[in-house]
Design brief:
Blueprint lengths: L4 E4 L5 E4 L4 H13 L8 H16 L6 H10 L3 H6 L4 H4 L8 H12 L44 E3 L12 E3 H12 L3 E4 L6 H12 L8 H24 L14 H14 L4 E5 L5 H7 L5 H5 L19 E7 L4 E7 L9 H16 L7 E8 H6 L1 H7 L12 E7 L8 H4 L16 E5 L3 H18 L3 E6 L17 H9 L3 H11 L5 H21 L38 H11 L11 H15 L2 E2 L1 H14 L3 E6 L14 E2 L7 E2 L12 E5 L5 H12 L4 E6 L10 H9 L1 H5 L6 E5 L14 H6 L15 H8 L13 E5 L11 E2 L12 E2 L4 H4 L6 E5 L3 H11 L6 E6 L7 H9 L5 E9 L5 H11 L6 E6 L10 H15 L11
Parallel strand pairs: 6-8, 6-9, 9-10, 10-12, 11-12, 14-17, 14-18, 18-19, 19-20, 23-24, 23-25, 25-26
Antiparallel strand pairs: 1-2, 3-4, 5-11, 7-8, 13-21, 15-16, 22-24
Length: 975
């Protein structure tokens, strides 16, 4: 609705205007984004404020929500006092005189967390600032700031209607007001939420914390909390006794995290959640597996056994698992999944979100009422790693939202050996969460009851508002970075205090024993009971029969594999489809299946060209992609394509989402109009993120084997900033965690003189990480093609198992007149061609061929054109590799044996130290048993992947084409 403001008519009185002045509007936006009212009423700003205030009087909804909150509080003079100006609104006769109670309440509400007692050690300020705001009453000597004296403390004040500290009382003495505010905002809980620009949400939080008596626990609740603390601490003690010299990254110093997580899960289960997906770093992981996920202890203990079956490719504190069980608190079934994660601490964050989104999608859980995620973080990583910010910015995007995540920060107040004052510029490690208006609850981890209450509220918040929330457990790390590390080298004062620190279990047990909630005997029996459980599990862990990595799957696919984990079949079915289906998909791809939908005139030409290709039984890359996706959708397989600008396509070739030229936000996705009973097609432009979004799509692909999940980079080299996901999860995920995944990476690649970042997808990196042996000549068994794919670490076609696939997609070839295929190559009975052999004149008389050029990708079309120009079509054969890794030994052996006297040349447009040459050369030599050389033709080695100068590009292209067809180029040379 239009904004309103006030101006003057000819008589000087105030009158409504149809919209705010631009300067007033921008001033309002500036305040809204900063979340502070400091100097908001300064002389240069006051005119703009007055305009907005008049608009607000006319209609409170006409201004930004934050200004609505401001004007309500400014009516009490609070903002004016902070600015040190006196009340602007009062001076203009626009507001009543404020009450002291209102001022005091607002000050504690906004700034109380700065003086809360959050550090269990009592030596650091959680916000890295020991300054106490001068306008915050924490001691009597601060009363003077408000013009008050000690005698005013017993005066009774009317309470503001926005506060809940009075309970059923409408007025309190100033002394009692301060006491209650300090109890809420300045003790072991510090609340940050006043930056949230939603009044309802702010009031909800205030009610949860200000209402007197809300933080009361029954004796049963206290005993449950004590038992959970016993399990948390005694588990760590047991590991320390049995494996004192092993790294285990224990939880000592933050044992309260276990009951905290269990409280979140209990409360979420109570509110209807059935599936919780978790991600966390290594610290405390074994404890979470044991006491939250409830993995069998013997399975954890056997991971310390050096006889563990080979195949476990990672350390025990990186592994994940999946478990269905009954929640004892609610007696409801709940599924828990802890995702495996490498030492790149926050890399798992978007992966968890992607899997959560997928589980919600397949359950039809559009509001996130059945599936949710919990993410644990270390303080240094949460503040320091950019993928956290990238993932937060996915939290409210339609195709990426998971309807709220609970973030739990284990705030050790140190990162490895780095003091937080050296590790972040923000006051708190959690400040990154403010960008999405997530409330932040800081809590002293040595106060277990405060922690439990905060976690319960966090779970309620997430399930009420479907928004992110952060719980900051301010704690300490009792040992060094790991159990072998000496922390006194770098933090001597902190660790002197830690060595004197009484463990939280003893503190809490002493408290409950003192107030009669439990007896000393009951406490000791609880300890003995859990110690016995650990000892019995330790004995069972000696049984070698249980040593198997399959127990550590975090994403099982029931029904997809045989019970032994092997594929149900080793055959590779044909991938072609009927001509009728090809024609139908082509016709839909060239139409607008929605009435009265106006498309762009340029798009009309593109659709017309698609229709003509379909009629002529031809497909280019874009139409072939359409047919591939469409045929999979018909089989009930969900297809998801994600990335920057994928809806249209970076090169304006795809156009899977059509936009009405006259109606905003009216779109049409023809792919979802192929058949009545088809799987859904999801195509979604992502935020400008590679690391976070690729991690998200990887997680999405983990949820089900019956989905085709693709991530496309704008240009191939843009995967650089997602390299962590590629290295740590995609390339090695199966070897480390037995994690199957069918994600597809579409990486535009090709050198046209457009500069390095817009040319090369760095194929050499993927080939370097491929796990086939260049020197091992394989045995060609009956199902060689499929078994070779099963043994490798990435590639996927229509197979009974899943592997990641790297596709180097074209740029200029998208519109190349020769880069088209006939329906004949796609109809029923056809399959993917790993190698496309020479099929022209050279193949008819192979003994006359003087040179075989082997290549892959775009350079083939340059070579074919040059061969024709030089009239060498009978003397030079050109063979294409369509599958580079795993290397097609069988088909290439057959192809090379056709030309026994010909030179063998590998030609690529990439530089010699890039591209494919270092990968293919030793494998070609293995095929010919090192009896024939394989010569290199291409660009010379270079540091940059490509030139950005068009002329330099053409000169180097001309040079290597000349070499490729100079039939005397390698005569007399040795190899």
């Amino acid at each position: 609705q239009p904004l309103l403001c006030c101006g003057s008519n000819s008589e000087g009185s105030l009158m409504p205007r149809p919209e705010l002045s631009r300067r007033a509007f921008l001033h309002g936006q500036r305040y809204a984004s900063s979340g502070t009212s400091e100097s908001v009423l300064s002389g240069s700003n006051s005119n703009y404020v007055e305009e907005m205030y008049c608009a607000w009087l006319e209609n409170p909804e006409s201004v930004h929500k934050s200004w609505d909150v401001f004007f309500r509080s400014a009516a009490a003079g609070q903002a004016a006092q902070q600015a040190g100006k006196g009340s602007f609104l009062q001076s203009h006769g626009l507001a009543p005189t404020p009450t002291t109670a209102e001022k005091v309440v607002e000050d504690h509400l906004i700034r109380g967390h700065h003086v809360a007692q959050l550090d269990p050690l009592g030596i650091l300020d959680a916000d890295l600032d020991s300054f106490i705001p001068s306008d915050l009453i924490t001691t009597i000597d601060k009363l003077g700031f408000y013009g008050l004296h000690e005698s005013d403390l017993d005066k009774v004040f009317q309470l503001p209607t926005t506060t809940f500290i009075g309970g059923n009382e409408n007025s309190l003495s100033l002394r009692e007001i301060i006491k209650r505010l300090e109890h809420t905002y300045c003790q072991h809980i510090g609340l940050e939420f006043m930056f949230i620009n939603d009044v309802e949400q702010c009031q909800w939080i205030r009610q949860k914390f200000e209402t007197p008596g809300v933080m009361k626990f029954s004796n049963d609740d206290k005993r449950t909390l004590l038992a959970r603390l016993v399990r948390s601490m005694r588990f760590e003690d047991f590991l320390a006794r049995k494996w004192s010299s092993e790294k285990r990254f224990g939880l000592e110093g933050c044992e309260v995290m276990i009951p905290a997580l269990k409280t979140i899960i209990d409360k979420s289960s109570e509110m209807g959640i059935e599936y919780v997906i978790m991600g966390m770093p290594h610290r405390g992981r074994l404890n979470v597996l044991a006491n939250v996920i409830r993995k069998e202890l013997e399975q954890i203990f056997c991971q310390f056994d050096p006889k563990l079956e080979a195949g476990s490719g990672d350390v025990k504190y990186h592994l994940g698992m999946y478990h269905e069980r009954i929640n004892r608190k609610t007696n409801k079934k709940i599924t828990l999944s802890l995702m495996a994660n490498p030492s790149h601490l926050e890399a798992v964050v978007p992966v968890v979100q992607g899997k959560t989104k997928a589980e919600q999608f397949y359950r039809g859980d559009t509001a996130g009422k059945k599936v949710m995620s919990i993410l644990l973080h270390g303080d240094a990583a949460f503040a320091g790693q950019g993928v956290v910010y990238e993932t937060f910015h996915l939290s409210d995007l339609p195709s990426y939202t998971t309807n709220g995540t609970i973030h739990v920060v284990v705030n050790n107040q140190i990162g490895f050996t780095t003091d937080p004052r050296m590790a972040r510029s923000s006051p708190y490690p959690t400040d990154v969460a403010r960008v999405v208006n997530a409330p932040i609850f800081h809590v002293n981890a040595d106060d277990p009851e405060a922690v439990m209450y905060v976690c319960s509220v966090a779970a309620e918040w997430r399930n009420t508002f479907n928004k992110d929330v952060v719980v900051d457990l301010v704690c300490y790390r009792r040992r060094g970075h790991n159990e072998m590390d000496e922390p006194m080298f770098t933090q001597p004062l902190m660790y002197k205090q830690i060595h004197k620190q009484v463990p939280v279990l003893k503190k809490y047990a002493d408290k409950l024993i003192a107030d009669g909630t439990v007896t000393l005997q009951e406490f000791e029996e609880e300890i003995a009971k859990y110690d016995k459980i650990c000892e019995e599990a330790y004995t069972r862990s000696k049984d070698n029969k249980i040593l198997h990595i399959k127990h550590w799957l975090d994403s099982p696919w029931p029904g997809f594999f045989n019970p032994d984990g092997e594929p149900k079949s080793m055959s590779c079915p044909p991938t072609g489809i009927s001509e009728e289906l090809l024609t139908h998909i082509g016709n839909v791809a060239s139409s607008v299946p929605v009435e009265d939908f106006k498309i762009h005139s340029g798009l009309s030409r593109i659709l017309k060209a698609r229709a003509e290709m379909t009629e002529n039984r031809l497909v280019d890359w874009a139409l072939a992609e359409y047919m591939a996706f469409g045929s999979v959708l018909k089989e009930g397989i969900h297809v998801r394509l994600s990335g920057q600008d994928v809806e249209r396509g970076t090169f304006s070739h795809r156009h899977h989402v059509l936009h009405d030229q006259d109606v905003d936000k009216r779109i049409c996705v023809p792919m979802n109009h192929l058949w009545e009973q088809q799987a859904p097609y999801t195509v979604c432009n992502s935020s400008l993120s590679e690391y976070g979004v690729l991690g998200f799509e990887l997680g999405f692909a983990m949820a089900s084997p019956n989905a085709l999940v693709c991530w496309e980079a704008q240009f191939g080299d843009f995967h650089n900033t997602a390299q962590c996901i590629i290295d740590q999860f995609i390339s090695s995920g199966q070897a480390k965690w037995v994690r199957h995944n069918g994600i597809v990476l579409l990486l535009p690649h090709g050198m046209e003189g457009m500069g390095p970042e817009h040319s090369s997808a760095r194929p050499e990196r993927f080939l370097q990480m491929s796990n086939d042996d260049s020197d091992a000549y394989p045995e060609f068994t009956e199902h060689f093609e499929v078994s070779q794919l099963y043994d490798c670490n990435w590639i996927v076609i229509l197979l009974p198992f899943r592997k990641p696939l790297i596709v180097l997609t074209p740029k200029s070839l998208l519109r190349h007149p020769e880069a088209k295929s006939s329906f004949d190559e796609m109809v029923s009975g056809t399959s993917f061609q790993r190698v496309i052999p020479e099929n022209g004149p050279a193949a008819e008389e192979p003994h006359e061929v003087k040179r075989v050029i082997l290549c892959t990708g775009k350079v083939y079309y340059d070579l074919v054109k040059e061969r024709k120009n030089q009239d060498l079509e009978k003397q030079v054969a050109i063979t294409r590799l369509e599958q580079i890794s795993p290397f097609p030994f069988d088909l290439l052996k057959e192809e090379l044996e056709k030309y026994p006297t010909a030179d063998l040349v590998w030609c690529q447009e990439e530089h010699k130290n890039s591209g494919y040459y270092d990968y293919v050369r030793p494998r070609f030599r293995t095929i010919v048993n090192r009896t024939r050389p394989i010569w290199y033709v291409g660009r010379e080695p270079a540091a940059a992947a490509a030139t950005g100068n068009k002329n330099t590009h053409l000169v180097s292209l001309r040079r290597f084409l000349d070499t490729a067809f100079n039939l005397e180029a390698f005569e007399g040379k040795t190899f």
